[in-house]
Structure formats: C-alpha cells, structure tokens
Specification:
With 420 residues, the protein is of the alpha/beta class. It has 2 domains: 216 residues, Enolpyruvate transferase domain (UDP-n-acetylglucosamine1-carboxyvinyl-transferase, Chain), CATH 3.65.10.10; 193 residues, Alpha-beta prism (UDP-n-acetylglucosamine1-carboxyvinyl-transferase, Chain). The chain is built from 13 helices and 22 strands. Strands 2, 13, 14, 15 and 16 form a 5-stranded mixed sheet that branches. Helix 4 runs parallel beside helix 5. The structure holds shikimate-3-phosphate (S3P).
Amino acid sequence: MTDHGRAALTATGPLSGTVRVPGDKSIGHRSLLLGALCDGPVAVTGLSDGEDNHATARVLGQLGVRIERDGDRATVHGVGLHGFSAPDGPLDCGNSGTTMRILLGILAGQPFEVTLVGDHSLSRRPMKRVLEPLAKMGLEVLSAEGGTYPPLRVRGRRALTPLRWESAVASAQVKSAILLAGLFADGDTTVTEPGVSRDHTERMLAWLGRPPAPRPIHVPGDLSSAAFMLGAALLVPGSRVTVADVGVNPTRTGFLDIIRAMGADLREGAAREANGEPAADLEVVASNPLRAIDIAGDLALRALDELPLVATIASRAAGTTRIRDAAELKVKESDRIEKTAEVLRSFGVKVDTHPDGLDVHGDPDAPLRAGDVDADGDHRIAMCATLLGLVAPAGTVVRGASTIASSFPSFHDCLAALVP
Ligand code: S3P
C-alpha cells in the first residue's frame, strides 16, 4: 500500500484550551497483565484505546483471560497465577515491545509452548535482555539464535527459580518481566539496574499484594502523550494549554524538569493518588523564550521516551541542547537518535548525532521549511514531525502517521482542539 502521508496542521496563532489525553500506556499494560494474575475480576478505569494496550488485551484473550471493555473502562477476569491456557496460535504483540517483554515474565511460569510475533518495528527489537534472565529462572528458549529478535518460541514451567539479577540496562520492561516471573518462584527475586527506570510494576504489585488480589485500578492520563500537547504549546509563542489528570510518577517526569530548566512556565496542579500512582493537571504558558540545556544521566533516563520531543522543542530554543546517556534510544520503535535527527533536518534544523544522543542547534527565529518525514513505524517520531509542522510553512507531510494510534489515537483531535 502506498502511504501518501498526512498533511500536518499549521498554527496561525497561539494554541489554547484544555485537553485530556488517553490513559498511561505503561500503567494500562500493567493493569491488564497484573489484573490477569489476580484471582477474580479487576475493575480498570481510564484505560487507553491505543493499539498497544489493545494488543495486550488481545494476547491475554488468547491465553484464556476474559476482558470486557466499555470505553475506557474494563473488567479483567483474572485467572490467578496458574489459570492461563495454551493459545491455539501465535501471540501477535503488534508494535508493542512492552507487551512482548512483560508478558514473557508471565509465560515463564506457564507450562506450555508459545510463539510470539510482532510487526516490522518490533521484529527489530532486542529480546535477549529479557530472555537471558528468564532462562536462568527456568524459561526454555526454543527460537533460533536464542531469541535475539522476534519471532520468539518459548516454553515455561509451573515453578521457577528465584533470581538476583544485575541488569546491564536500565529497563522497566526487563525489570517487570523478571519481577512477574518472581511470582512463580519460591523465594525472593531482585533486580538491580545501572539507572532509574519507571516503577509502575512495583507500585501496582504493592497495591495488589503477593499473590496479586483483585482491587480496582485507575489509569491516569499518559505523561508521554500529554508531553506532546505541552510541547506543541511551547513551540507556538503565546500559547496556553492545560492537560487534565496526567500521571506524574517521579520516574517519568524528566520531561517536566527539562522544560522547566529550559525556561518554560509550567504549572502543576495539586497531586491526587490512585493505586500508588500520583496524577495532576499540567498547564504550560508559553510566554518565555526557551534556552538550550545539557541533558544526561538520570534526567535523560527519566525522560527517555520524550527525548525526541525535547530535541524538537530544542530546535526553537536559543543555543545548542546536548542530549547524552541515551543510547537506549537506538533500540526503541526506531533508532530514535537517527530518526529524530532526520525529522529535524527535514525541517532545516542543524543537528549532530552521537552514539548516545544528539546536539540540537536551536534558534527560535531561524526560518524552517516544510518537512517530509517517514515515521517508519514509530509513533513518537510521527508526532514530533507533526508538531514541527505547526510552526513550519504549510506543506509538511508525515508518512506512516497511522502508527500514532499505538499510543495516542486522539492525537490529531487533541491538537486540532487547541489550534486556532
Ligand atoms: C516501558 C518502559 C520503557 C519505555 C517504554 C515503556 C514500560 O522502556 O521506553 O515505552 O512500560 O515498561 P524500557 O524497558 O527501556 O525502560
């Protein structure tokens, strides 16, 4: 099929208004996966309609877990640790690395063989990082080359061996898979990491208990989606945008710290908490010029999914923004170091790439040209290009923009609601 691309909106004046973004993708996956491990029905509210969360629900269905959905509400009829049934075909995780990696932690404890497949983008993503520790716990890896990339063929078993794992990468997906496999082991399983990764699994396990027992779960708005609305406001001078009910778990809020350090006027409402996850309304008033900053270490990790967006915003900030310690960007839905640079260059922005990050040479007054970008199966790349299109001359085209539906199906509607 030829993708003629989607024409990006241009902003004729400041953005204004209040929007709600879909539920947090990471917490949504966990509400379904951990809900399935409970012995009884779990009521979930705020669940995203994004394709990635649907992929998790679908594969759980193939494993015998009944999930009823009504808009953003769902009832997950948990089957307990040992109630899953062998699927009658491959489990298709679509574009969702989180689905595949975390699910493997549950499959390690199931005494049957399973094949997992994904789309073109997911089939290029590294799986050894999760298969290696799970194999030490008892998962049999049957795929060729020890399961470097999907498709994967694995066979679990009913009882696993506890593990103390020192992970070479800070990865919430790896950590979560090991912790969930630990539920099937008699003894303590621990993971240490070289840096901070999001802790939604730990918070939800604390909420549900061990073994997990049914309790209601609320999924707050996704900060990683909200960031695009706040970022759009920052790109268009004079904008004032609020995003309501956004998850502000401190392992995720690097983006907020970064834009504050760049000089943004960000206002955070009072935090509320549900199932151990804080949420607040976030407002950006784009009255200040932004300046370049250096981003590295834990700050880069706490904003990892938002770094392509940070680079996009930095293209309109004065000076060179340096992003480092972000080599993990290379193994996301695309090589996000190269793809981000490709997006920015397409609009005429100067960028240098490094093995673990990029330098963005920003200038709020530099003229942009209309971009032409192929998202290549990466939702966040498609959204970055769309945002730059707001402030570029008309004519920007984003190819493969349909991938945005994996995390933020209402992205274009939310943006259209804010653009004059
Ligand atoms: C996620 C963890 C992150 C993030 C991904 C979602 C999760 O990846 O990039 O979008 O829900 O666990 P890591 O496994 O690299 O932390």
